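ok new one. same drill as before - structure tokens go in, u give me an amino acid for every spot. 290 of them this time. try not to just spam alanines like last time pls lmao
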């Protein structure tokens, strides 16, 4: 169920005096089952890219292929595409509109032509997957907290049982606890459901902690593609793009500059702690056992 962009270009207001190229010559593939982070400074083309993948935007040129089929082919069913490649917008208010949460989550399955019984069954399963309390089901979506709205919006997409889940800044505006809860939720869903997930984020620390692979966008193209360790080893390049490495990377580099012979490729607190303990006198054996 791979989805692939081939030499894609997209120009806003094409053919007008206000024409603005957002993506150009972009090629990338999301392989089955991967958990992928998409990072880049504001205006780098991230949101345009994910809307192209979902079929909400049509490329000015190039192709978007899902299971080797051009999604803009003459007879292609893009309604089915949007059920299989689900997109959760940055602001959940853009997706929540029904009178109560349960009815809202039923919307996708209803649009797929499922029976009322199947709609409710899928909606309840999705709401349980995102761990939204049952007390919220009969509430208006706009009475929910920010974190609850995110969960409801994700449930609305999950109810369609997508093969690919795309989330555009799902933790924007949340406090640190709320952000951690959403990332833990999404990571757990990835393990349990085995679906492909592409997550747009500005948090380098979270991307390093949770993702298997990172795509870096800059100037409308994929500037870097690799594992977190591969991508964040290129600190100078990232900084030139207006990005940064995780905070732990800078701490480890500072320790090394102070003469402490630690490796600098640690990306999480846990990795850094193990490496520092390994360098402490009398701790070498204990750290090695871990």
């Amino acid at each position: 169920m791979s989805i692939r962009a081939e030499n894609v270009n997209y120009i806003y207001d094409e053919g007008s005096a206000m024409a603005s190229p957002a993506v150009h010559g972009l090629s990338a593939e999301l392989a089955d089952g991967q958990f992928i982070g998409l990072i880049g400074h504001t205006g780098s083309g991230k949101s345009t890219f994910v809307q192209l993948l979902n079929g909400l935007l049509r490329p000015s040129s190039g192709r978007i292929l899902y299971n080797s089929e051009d999604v803009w082919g003459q007879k292609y069913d893009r309604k089915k595409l949007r059920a299989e490649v689900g997109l959760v917008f940055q602001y959940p208010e853009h997706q929540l509109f029904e009178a109560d949460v349960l009815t809202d989550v039923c919307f996708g399955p209803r649009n797929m032509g499922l029976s009322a019984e199947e709609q409710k069954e899928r909606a309840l399963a999705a709401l349980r997957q995102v761990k939204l309390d049952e007390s919220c089901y009969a509430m208006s979506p706009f009475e929910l907290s920010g974190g609850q709205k995110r969960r409801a919006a994700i449930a609305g997409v999950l109810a369609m049982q997508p093969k690919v889940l795309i989330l555009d800044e799902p933790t924007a505006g949340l406090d640190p606890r709320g952000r951690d809860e959403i990332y833990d939720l999404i990571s757990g869903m990835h393990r349990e459901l085995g679906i492909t997930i592409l997550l747009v984020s500005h948090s380098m620390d979270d991307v390093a902690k949770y993702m298997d692979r990172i795509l870096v966008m800059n100037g409308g193209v994929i500037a870097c593609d690799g594992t977190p360790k591969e991508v964040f080893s290129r600190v100078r390049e990232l900084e030139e793009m207006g990005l940064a490495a995780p905070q732990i990377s800078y701490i480890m580099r500072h320790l090394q500059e102070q003469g402490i012979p630690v490796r600098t490729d640690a990306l999480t607190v846990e990795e850094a702690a193990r490496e520092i303990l390994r360098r402490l006198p009398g701790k070498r054996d204990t750290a090695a056992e871990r």
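Strands lie at 3-12, 20-30, 35-39, 61-66, 69-70, 85-88, 164-168, 196-200, 213-218, 221-226. and btw The domain at 3-228 is CATH 3.40.50.300 (Rossmann fold).
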